[in-house]
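Renewal narrative, Specific Aim 1. Our central claim is that a sequence can be written position by position from structural information alone. The example that follows is taken directly from our test logs and has not been curated for this report. It begins with the structure tokens describing the chain, in the order in which they were read.
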């Protein structure tokens, strides 16, 4: 197994960091600025993505959200993924990937996104705790096809669409939510919790 630790500034790239099946820590002092996609993690072949830790980093885009996804985790069940203590502003969406029991998505702050703050696509028994989303044009948090997800301590203010969207999710648990100023004129349906 290989292990890498990244602490630097990555600016104006199409793709900032591409992680394939290795142990990587992206931590304090790492700044992603104006990357179309900052961090992409994916499974290729039989390599299992594990040990991905993205902590205390900064993602900074433009008012039009040049960063598409700050963190995009695709094609894997995301074993041992930790995304904690990050700050993002002026981006498209902050996080897209599974929400599984071995992932920790917590204490992140997202402001001024042009898309959804968090997009969880599948996963079982995952938790997203103490995250903050403000000023996004999309939904603060979207969960699709998740089994037994737990959202605790989410703070949402001034999002254009909804606070939380639950689409085809089962046995979900929502606790200690503070959801303010969502656009109540946006068309909602039976899958939507919006505060």
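The sequence written for that structure reads:
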């Amino acid at each position: 197994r290989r292990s890498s630790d990244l602490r630097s500034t990555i600016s104006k790239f199409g793709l900032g960091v591409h992680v394939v099946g290795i142990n990587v820590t992206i931590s304090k002092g790492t700044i992603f600025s104006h990357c179309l996609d900052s961090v992409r993690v994916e499974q290729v072949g039989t390599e299992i993505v594990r040990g991905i830790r993205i902590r205390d980093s900064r993602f900074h885009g433009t008012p039009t959200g040049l960063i598409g996804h700050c963190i995009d985790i695709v094609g894997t069940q995301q074993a041992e993924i930790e995304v904690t203590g990050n700050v993002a502003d002026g981006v498209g969406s902050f996080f897209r990937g599974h929400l599984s029991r071995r992932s920790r998505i917590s204490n992140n702050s997202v402001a001024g996104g042009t898309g959804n703050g968090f997009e969880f696509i599948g996963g079982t028994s995952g938790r997203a705790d103490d995250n903050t989303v403000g000023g996004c044009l999309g939904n603060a948090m979207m969960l699709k096809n998740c089994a037994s997800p737990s959202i605790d301590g989410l703070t949402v203010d001034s999002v254009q669409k909804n606070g939380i969207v639950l689409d085809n999710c089962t046995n979900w648990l929502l606790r200690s939510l503070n959801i303010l100023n969502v656009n109540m004129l946006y068309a909602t349906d039976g899958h939507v919790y919006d505060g």
